[in-house]
Design brief:
By secondary structure, this protein is mostly beta strands. The protein has three helices and 37 strands. The chain has four domains: about 70 residues, Immunoglobulin-like, CATH 2.60.40; about 80 residues, no CATH class; about 90 residues, no CATH class; about 160 residues, Jelly Rolls. β32 and β33 form a beta hairpin. The radius of gyration is 56 Å and the shape is elongated. The N and C termini lie far apart (about 180 Å).
Length: about 475
Amino acid sequence: MPEERRWYRDPVNWLTIAVLVGFTVAVVTSPTFQSWLHSLWGAQPQQPQQQPAQQPQQQPAAQQQLQQARLCSVLIEADAPNATALVNGTLHALPARLTVREGSLLVIEPQPTVTHEPLNSSVTVKVTGNATVVLRYRRAYALVRTVVSGPGQLIVNGTPVGNATLRVRPGTLLEVLAVPDLEKEAELYVNGSKLSLCATCSPNPLVPIEIRGDTELVAVFGPKRIVLHVDTGNMSVLLKARYWEQWVNGTATIGLFAGDRVNVTTFCVPFEDALRCVVSWAVSQYTPLGLLNSSAPPNATISLHGDAWMRAVVSKVKSGVPSPVRGGVLMNGSEVPATMMPTTAWQSIRPWTARYEYLGNGVWRIDSSGSNEIVLDIGANWSKLKVELFVEDIYPGRPFAEFNVLTEPYKGFFCNYCDMSPLLPGDKYVVVFDRSGKVLQYDFTKWCAGTTKYSVSDPVLEVPGRLVIWVKSIRLRLRVEVSP
């Protein structure tokens, strides 16, 4: 009997089964079948949840290239001081060092400085590596520094300026005018050199100055210098201002400042049966209004505003004030120079009635029939002053003597005879002062001490350290000794 063939033994059958199973699975899992099944049974179709495959993010090519570009150093400099520049819209003080990526584009806009302008308004630079960029400038302005010292105005091109800094183009012509206050004068300095102003021009000449570079212009205003020409007619005259005094016997030219007040004191000399004296002064001086001619009494205070001339008018008179007498005082046993001179403050009230002379070895004689004040100028370099008084004679009236040391103008310390009993011929007294005016030694039973202040104006009473001697109805000898 032939062998029975089994179906599973045939490979074709298995192939057929596999095809059918695959077809069935495909049909069952297909979306169409699922939708049909859902519509038939109301079931929700199951769809396999698949995780989306993460795709790698791809960056733009330009950004990738930028990340891959290397960093570069760019130094931006300028050949002008204190320069600045806009770099891609951001302001930088130069020199500036920037760190940028290779391939970057820099737009550099140099900015003007106080004195310089850039040659180019904008520079574009593409960075290909480390680099240095130098911005070129040219000098476009000069600085003019103005300094004003003292009472006055400095005017530049019609505009008053003070202490300031002006910016001008090189080659500019500045018209400079220095206007001092009344009785002042101006000096102009350019870069430290004094300008010689036109002496024949107006009082305040207009000075042209060409600016070629940085310039310093200084205007100094101070007291106006003037000249006083004096002709005393060969008479002895004492001239004294605030800071100086000078004896003139003939002619002299004295420099001083406008506004100074000069005290003039004249002295008569014996002449035949009378005296030869300055009776007046002819005065001519330049003022803001022009040349002014006037006259002044022999002893006067004259205010000067410009160059002036004083000429003495000398005449023979019957009375007058004696001239100063030069003599000395003792210092450490030796004679040192001293001058005795009259005061003139009281001449309008009482006439001068005294005579004085130097006897030598520090001894002076004073003969005063009336009341007179005499000044002994012994200088200022002493610490102690000793006066020995010897009464030679007395005259009708009440004899009197006083010594006063000036400690400042018109002020001092005095020591005078104040006893009720009169001074008599042969009396001797000693009075000692220190430099501050304190009375160190005196006969306090007959002499008094204190402070004094003069209410009159007299040039000889303005110098500290002088000894003022007031005598009345007496003839006496004085021996004066000072210690250094």
